Amino acid sequence: MMHPDTELRYINDEIGYGVFATKFIPKGTIVWAMDDLDQVLDPAFVEKLDPLRKQDVQKYSFKDQYGKYILCWDKARFVNHSFYPTCVATMYDLELAARDIHPGEELTDDYGTLNLDEPFDCLPEEGANRTRVMPDDLLRYYPIWDEIAASAFQRFTEVEQPLRHLIRPEHIAAIQGITEKGHSLDSVLHLYCQSHWRK
Fold first, then answer.
1. 1 within some domain
2. Model's pTM, two decimal places?
3. 148 vs 134: CA distance, rounded Å
Protein backbone atom coordinates (compact mmCIF):
# COMPACT_ATOMS: atom_id res chain seq x y z
CA MET A 1 0.00 0.00 0.00
CA MET A 2 1.24 3.46 -0.89
CA HIS A 3 1.51 6.30 1.59
CA PRO A 4 -1.88 8.03 1.93
CA ASP A 5 -0.46 11.44 0.96
CA THR A 6 0.10 10.37 -2.64
CA GLU A 7 -1.96 10.39 -5.81
CA LEU A 8 -1.86 8.98 -9.31
CA ARG A 9 -1.18 11.56 -12.05
CA TYR A 10 -0.87 11.36 -15.81
CA ILE A 11 2.59 12.52 -16.93
CA ASN A 12 2.69 12.18 -20.72
CA ASP A 13 2.16 9.68 -23.53
CA GLU A 14 5.70 8.32 -23.29
CA ILE A 15 5.75 7.70 -19.53
CA GLY A 16 2.06 7.30 -18.76
CA TYR A 17 1.13 7.65 -15.10
CA GLY A 18 3.18 8.19 -11.96
CA VAL A 19 2.69 8.51 -8.22
CA PHE A 20 3.11 11.97 -6.69
CA ALA A 21 3.22 13.38 -3.17
CA THR A 22 0.24 15.53 -2.19
CA LYS A 23 1.87 16.62 1.09
CA PHE A 24 5.38 16.75 2.50
CA ILE A 25 6.74 13.24 3.17
CA PRO A 26 9.92 13.38 5.26
CA LYS A 27 12.94 11.16 4.82
CA GLY A 28 12.57 7.89 6.70
CA THR A 29 8.79 7.64 6.21
CA ILE A 30 7.37 4.32 5.05
CA VAL A 31 6.14 5.18 1.55
CA TRP A 32 5.08 1.66 0.59
CA ALA A 33 4.35 -1.47 2.59
CA MET A 34 3.30 -4.83 1.28
CA ASP A 35 -0.10 -5.78 2.61
CA ASP A 36 -2.52 -8.68 2.44
CA LEU A 37 -4.33 -7.24 -0.59
CA ASP A 38 -1.21 -7.50 -2.76
CA GLN A 39 -1.24 -10.60 -4.95
CA VAL A 40 1.64 -13.08 -4.76
CA LEU A 41 1.72 -15.07 -8.00
CA ASP A 42 3.73 -18.20 -8.71
CA PRO A 43 5.85 -17.99 -11.91
CA ALA A 44 4.23 -21.19 -13.24
CA PHE A 45 0.81 -19.55 -12.88
CA VAL A 46 1.97 -16.40 -14.68
CA GLU A 47 3.54 -18.47 -17.46
CA LYS A 48 0.17 -20.14 -18.18
CA LEU A 49 -1.77 -16.87 -18.42
CA ASP A 50 -3.11 -15.72 -21.76
CA PRO A 51 -0.72 -13.28 -23.51
CA LEU A 52 -2.65 -10.11 -22.59
CA ARG A 53 -2.84 -10.83 -18.85
CA LYS A 54 0.68 -12.23 -18.74
CA GLN A 55 2.03 -9.04 -20.35
CA ASP A 56 0.26 -6.84 -17.80
CA VAL A 57 1.38 -8.94 -14.82
CA GLN A 58 4.98 -8.76 -16.02
CA LYS A 59 4.70 -5.01 -16.61
CA TYR A 60 3.04 -4.04 -13.33
CA SER A 61 4.59 -6.48 -10.88
CA PHE A 62 8.02 -7.10 -9.41
CA LYS A 63 9.72 -10.31 -8.32
CA ASP A 64 10.68 -11.07 -4.75
CA GLN A 65 13.78 -13.00 -3.72
CA TYR A 66 11.87 -16.28 -4.17
CA GLY A 67 10.93 -15.53 -7.77
CA LYS A 68 7.26 -14.85 -6.97
CA TYR A 69 5.53 -12.02 -8.80
CA ILE A 70 4.16 -9.33 -6.46
CA LEU A 71 1.25 -7.48 -8.07
CA CYS A 72 0.34 -4.48 -5.95
CA TRP A 73 -3.38 -3.82 -5.65
CA ASP A 74 -3.17 -0.02 -5.45
CA LYS A 75 -1.32 2.80 -7.20
CA ALA A 76 2.04 1.34 -6.13
CA ARG A 77 2.21 -0.49 -9.46
CA PHE A 78 2.51 2.90 -11.19
CA VAL A 79 5.68 3.99 -9.37
CA ASN A 80 8.20 4.87 -12.08
CA HIS A 81 11.92 4.26 -12.33
CA SER A 82 14.66 6.78 -11.61
CA PHE A 83 18.41 6.45 -11.18
CA TYR A 84 17.97 9.10 -8.46
CA PRO A 85 14.94 7.58 -6.74
CA THR A 86 13.00 9.25 -3.97
CA CYS A 87 12.27 5.85 -2.38
CA VAL A 88 14.57 3.04 -1.28
CA ALA A 89 13.87 -0.68 -0.96
CA THR A 90 14.52 -2.66 2.21
CA MET A 91 14.49 -6.33 3.19
CA TYR A 92 11.40 -5.74 5.34
CA ASP A 93 8.60 -5.67 2.74
CA LEU A 94 8.54 -1.90 2.81
CA GLU A 95 10.17 1.10 1.17
CA LEU A 96 11.27 4.31 2.85
CA ALA A 97 11.52 7.89 1.64
CA ALA A 98 15.19 8.11 0.68
CA ARG A 99 15.07 11.86 1.18
CA ASP A 100 12.49 14.51 1.93
CA ILE A 101 9.77 14.36 -0.73
CA HIS A 102 7.97 17.64 -1.33
CA PRO A 103 4.38 18.17 -2.48
CA GLY A 104 4.17 17.66 -6.24
CA GLU A 105 7.32 15.49 -6.39
CA GLU A 106 7.14 12.06 -7.94
CA LEU A 107 7.80 8.95 -5.87
CA THR A 108 10.26 6.79 -7.79
CA ASP A 109 12.20 3.54 -7.38
CA ASP A 110 15.39 2.25 -8.91
CA TYR A 111 14.05 -0.71 -10.88
CA GLY A 112 17.40 -2.41 -10.31
CA THR A 113 15.95 -3.69 -7.03
CA LEU A 114 12.97 -5.38 -8.72
CA ASN A 115 14.53 -8.58 -10.14
CA LEU A 116 13.74 -7.83 -13.76
CA ASP A 117 13.89 -10.75 -16.18
CA GLU A 118 15.11 -8.58 -19.05
CA PRO A 119 17.11 -5.33 -19.31
CA PHE A 120 15.02 -2.18 -19.09
CA ASP A 121 15.91 0.80 -21.29
CA CYS A 122 15.47 4.12 -19.49
CA LEU A 123 14.84 7.68 -20.48
CA PRO A 124 18.03 9.74 -20.11
CA GLU A 125 18.57 11.38 -16.72
CA GLU A 126 20.97 14.27 -16.34
CA GLY A 127 24.12 13.19 -14.51
CA ALA A 128 23.30 9.47 -14.54
CA ASN A 129 25.99 7.13 -15.85
CA ARG A 130 23.47 4.30 -16.21
CA THR A 131 21.10 4.13 -19.16
CA ARG A 132 19.68 0.63 -18.66
CA VAL A 133 18.44 -1.34 -15.69
CA MET A 134 19.99 -4.79 -15.74
CA PRO A 135 18.64 -7.97 -14.08
CA ASP A 136 21.77 -8.21 -11.93
CA ASP A 137 21.95 -4.57 -10.79
CA LEU A 138 21.35 -5.71 -7.20
CA LEU A 139 24.73 -7.45 -7.28
CA ARG A 140 26.47 -4.20 -8.29
CA TYR A 141 24.63 -1.45 -6.47
CA TYR A 142 23.43 -3.01 -3.20
CA PRO A 143 26.11 -1.23 -1.09
CA ILE A 144 24.81 2.15 -2.29
CA TRP A 145 21.18 1.21 -1.67
CA ASP A 146 22.01 -0.23 1.76
CA GLU A 147 23.71 3.04 2.72
CA ILE A 148 20.69 5.07 1.58
CA ALA A 149 18.31 2.78 3.50
CA ALA A 150 20.46 2.93 6.65
CA SER A 151 20.42 6.73 6.49
CA ALA A 152 16.62 6.74 6.04
CA PHE A 153 16.16 4.38 8.99
CA GLN A 154 17.96 6.92 11.20
CA ARG A 155 14.88 9.15 10.83
CA PHE A 156 12.32 6.32 11.17
CA THR A 157 11.28 7.04 14.76
CA GLU A 158 11.33 10.83 14.30
CA VAL A 159 8.65 11.01 11.61
CA GLU A 160 4.97 10.15 11.43
CA GLN A 161 4.41 6.63 10.11
CA PRO A 162 0.83 6.20 8.85
CA LEU A 163 1.71 2.78 7.39
CA ARG A 164 3.39 1.44 10.55
CA HIS A 165 0.45 -0.91 11.20
CA LEU A 166 1.30 -2.73 7.94
CA ILE A 167 4.78 -3.80 9.09
CA ARG A 168 4.70 -7.58 8.92
CA PRO A 169 5.05 -9.33 12.29
CA GLU A 170 8.17 -11.20 11.15
CA HIS A 171 9.95 -7.87 10.55
CA ILE A 172 9.02 -5.94 13.69
CA ALA A 173 11.94 -7.16 15.81
CA ALA A 174 14.50 -6.47 13.08
CA ILE A 175 13.20 -2.95 12.49
CA GLN A 176 13.16 -2.23 16.23
CA GLY A 177 16.74 -3.48 16.42
CA ILE A 178 17.76 -1.05 13.69
CA THR A 179 15.83 1.97 14.93
CA GLU A 180 16.17 1.52 18.71
CA LYS A 181 19.39 -0.44 19.23
CA GLY A 182 21.53 0.61 16.28
CA HIS A 183 21.69 -2.84 14.70
CA SER A 184 22.81 -3.12 11.08
CA LEU A 185 20.04 -3.63 8.58
CA ASP A 186 19.80 -6.72 6.39
CA SER A 187 21.28 -5.99 2.97
CA VAL A 188 18.98 -5.60 -0.03
CA LEU A 189 21.42 -7.97 -1.72
CA HIS A 190 19.23 -10.69 -0.20
CA LEU A 191 16.34 -9.47 -2.37
CA TYR A 192 18.21 -10.86 -5.37
CA CYS A 193 16.00 -13.56 -6.82
CA GLN A 194 17.15 -17.09 -5.97
CA SER A 195 16.42 -18.25 -9.51
CA HIS A 196 18.93 -15.65 -10.76
CA TRP A 197 21.63 -17.19 -8.51
CA ARG A 198 21.16 -20.48 -10.33
CA LYS A 199 21.69 -18.98 -13.81
1. no
2. 0.94
3. 20
